[in-house]
Amino acid sequence: MNQITKNRTKSRVSWVVAIVLALLWTVIAILPFVFMVLNSFKEKFEMLTKGVFALPDALYLDNYKAVLSGNFVSFFLNSVIVLVISLVVLLFIAACASYPLARFKFKLANPVLSLIVACMSIPIHITLIPVFKMSKAWGLYDSIWALIGPYVAMAIPVSVFILTSFMREIPREIEESAFIDGCSRYQIFFKMILPLSKPGLSTLAIYNGVNIWNEFSFAYTLTQSAENRTLPLAVWEFQGQYSMNTPMIMATLTLTVLPMIILFIFAQDKLVKGMTAGAVKG
Amino acid sequence: MGEKHQRETNIAAFIFLLPVAILMIVYIFYPIIDTFVTSFYKWNGISADKISIGFKNWIKLAADENFWAAFINNIKIMILSICIQIPIGLALATLIDFGGKKTTIFKVLWFIPLLMSSVAIGFLFNYALATNGGIISTISNLFGGGNIDLLGNPGTALYTVIGVIAWQFTPFYIVYSLAAYTNISVDVFEAARIDGATKGQYFWKIALPLLTPSLKSAAILSMVGSLKYFDLIYVMTGGGPGRATELMGTYMYKLSFSQFNMGYGSAVSGGMFILISAISLITMKVLNGKKEAE
Known about the structure:
Chain A is mostly helical. Chain A is built from 15 helices and no strands. Chain A has 2 domains: 2-63; 70-280, MetI-like (MetI-like fold, Orthogonal Bundle), CATH 1.10.3720. In chain A, 44% of the residues are buried.
């Protein structure tokens, strides 16, 4: 009897500790966010005179208007173009490569897969200078087209890794019966393997999509003028313009995060699953 | 027949692999070789005169205090990231796993930092941690402590940045641990409950050993990520104040693209590549070796 009460108090105490920890982490996680959104609705000097956590006097939207009437839309469109083209190319060629690696019997299958997977830990810094040189030589420097090649190439290792293990799970019988019916390997790939890989491809689209959308190093190195830059660099440009105007920067930041938040609200589970795909499968 | 079939297979495999092979050769393998070649030259990245200087860049690198200090900073970030993010991530995931439906709201709120890009986080925290009107200064002022300059002080800058990195990536390890929890079958939990195990006993004696392989992978992931770290720090501090938050990545970038010392910049990125590959290989060997011994 005494033991049970003891256990109960112990369990109650650990719950209290757990809830306190949970609330503490919640505050830590969202406080910077609150700071960002709250101050984005303030006038330039309001933030300094009233204190950073005071509610704005009125719903002041001029920061947003100013940001949206600047280059912001062009940054956004550049990001969309780069994202869509990179993703389509990446998913298609990664699926092409994963198919033989997952389902064909040939001597080099394992060494090739290992080589591709080993590239997952390569730091992009080792490729920056040569890729910079190539973009200049090919006349791609300072245009969004310079970004697509590196973005696709850098995402290949993890994509092939995940898709290969996904395609291995597809039952062999499907392929064999089609083969007996006289389908070629290419027909099997387009008519069966590709459609059956859709769940894996959609997870990968989210994982790589988020990474490409947020990519900084190549975008910063390979583009120069404001009209050719992608969204992560928008803040960079606006900071140069409004360095002392914190609320303006906060409005820019809020706008850059907005697409992700909208995606999160509508496809929370898919996004969470997709963003951890590279890790969980490993 | 069998031979012909094998030959057709080989040809099909070649065709399917070709696009990926071309892109990887152009954007990964060739650049790696080219970086090592460039590291034997003195070159500013623009002019045509590239002067071959043999191993001079590499000898300079081996004795470069700035590079090794940057490497030590990478190691500090690596160790503290593993020690902070993974335990907190696991603890919070455990809470959600034990708490059930009631705790879903936490899951949503805790995920928020992961929605922001490193660049956006870097900028946000530059302002959020500002000496004047930053979050920490505001809190400190509430208690009469006065303004605090975390990022401008060489003694605290690196640890502040590590805190921001923890803010960014802990949600990842929460989700990661949650996924690992769902792999433990419900039967295991039920059996433990029927045997009268408390939740604490269940966690330490049953769940934790089952989660260990996932946690090992998480540690490798965090390790490689920390050694490659770049964009957030480049945006937040640029490696400063002084060299307090300099990393291999920021050092290489500034050498190559601000000072246009691309020959030596290549040697630094080559050194970075060798160190990261060696550390990942050794760690994987050690962790996998243990697995085989078990």
